[in-house]
Write a structure and sequence with these properties.
By secondary structure, the chain is an alpha/beta fold. The protein has 13 helices and seven strands. Helix 3 links the parallel strand 2 and strand 3. The termini are far apart.
Length: about 375
């Protein structure tokens, strides 16, 4: 059972609790003592049940005095980490030290980590080379379980199938070489396009290093590592790879192009100006409308394949996330009432109203019907 803090910044702060916090050297001091009391009471009647509690944000540091009871699981959350690099990187030294400290006072440390961008699930999230390496490090440092938070509201995400394969392989056998696991998956899943997918990964991962970008769990399509040259060369790598494929493999890679396509579409004018100034060939369709049509096909393939619509944001608009994407690109409030994935010529306004929900954020909304389509 779980006995955990709420997802906010409010820890126990009355006079008695603050005295415990000072004594324990962590804002979670009073919480961890309370969890032990609950665990002791539970043990009497339910000796096989464990109590799981988060060490999260203000409570990640272990207490100096209190040790978790044998039936308590400490689930340390890596929310403050740099997810582009492994635990051994200096940028992750604080959380790494905390995990090591927990390992010295309990043998039941679990991890809650993040494997996708919680601000917008369908953006590039180049943690390709840290996911497996971190599982290996956790296993070597006494961690006994892991929960990885990904694109929980739907399908899609940046190379999610590869990350799932790497995680499942390394969780089953942490002695594996994660780089070899990646190589095996790329060859088996993408065939002749495997080198181009690897190029895509290395372009994005290399830009993280070049810009010294600290990749948190949340950022948008203007993140520093998503420079114009990085985005343009990354999408070209996947397009070149897809040109070598046909059938199922071509569709797989098409679905995996959604994140980088989404960046290009969100920054269409800027990137068009960049390639013109630099004399670089434009790697996508000539118009935003045509690019969105291709994106819609990727979206619908992924939806059909996984029986769940790709999520375009952490708020979870599974039911209508393609319509949400369309409004982001072509103006707020334009909602398609026709078939998903159809590229249309123009909208016939039917009514103007105000939607009272978080999806349209109380903005005036034009409801229309597509007059005709070209795709």
């Amino acid at each position: 059972m779980s006995v955990s803090q709420a997802d906010n910044q409010f820890f126990c702060s009355d006079e008695h609790d603050l005295a415990i916090i000072k004594e324990e050297g962590t804002n979670g001091g009073a919480l961890f003592r309370a969890v032990n009391v609950i665990a002791d009471a539970l043990q009497l009647e339910f000796p096989t049940v464990s109590v799981d509690t988060l060490a999260y944000e203000w409570s990640t540091a272990p207490p100096k005095i209190t040790k978790p009871r044998p039936n308590v699981i400490i689930r340390a959350c890596s929310i403050e980490c740099n997810f582009a690099v492994p635990m051994t990187d200096p940028s992750n030294s604080v959380f790494r030290s905390e995990v090591e400290q927990w390992g010295r006072i309990t043998n039941r440390t679990y991890i809650w980590t993040y494997i996708s961008n919680l601000r917008e699930f369908d953006l590039p999230f180049p943690n390709y080379y840290s996911v497996g390496a971190n599982i290996k490090w956790y296993a070597a440092n006494g961690v006994r379980g892991m929960y990885a938070e990904g694109t929980g509201y739907g399908s899609g995400g940046d190379l999610s199938e590869m990350k799932d394969y790497v995680m499942s392989s390394m969780l089953w056998n942490a002695s594996l070489d994660p780089d070899l696991v990646i190589a095996q998956f790329l060859d088996d899943y993408y065939g002749k396009a495997a080198p181009f997918v690897r190029e895509y990964m290395d372009i994005l991962h290399g830009s993280i290093a070049d810009t010294s970008y600290f990749m948190s769990y949340s950022f948008d399509s203007t993140a520093e590592f998503l420079s114009p040259i990085t985005v343009v060369t990354a999408v070209k790598a996947l397009r070149d790879g897809q040109a070598l494929l046909s059938g199922e493999q071509a569709s797989r890679l098409g679905g995996n192009m959604m994140p980088i396509y989404w960046v290009v579409m969100r920054r269409w004018s800027q990137l068009r100006q960049f390639v013109k100034a630099e004399g670089i060939a434009w790697p996508l369709e000539p118009t935003l409308e045509q690019a969105f049509h291709s994106f819609s096909l990727m979206f619908n393939f992924t939806k059909t394949r996984f029986d769940r619509a790709p999520s375009m944001g952490a708020s979870g608009h599974d039911h209508d996330s393609l319509a949400w994407a369309r409004t982001q690109l072509f103006g707020p409030g334009i909602r398609c009432l026709g078939s998903p994935g159809t590229l249309c010529n123009r909208v016939i306004p039917l009514a103007v109203t105000t939607q009272d929900d978080h999806y349209y954020q109380n903005k005036p909304t034009v409801f229309g019907a597509w007059e005709s389509g070209v795709g």
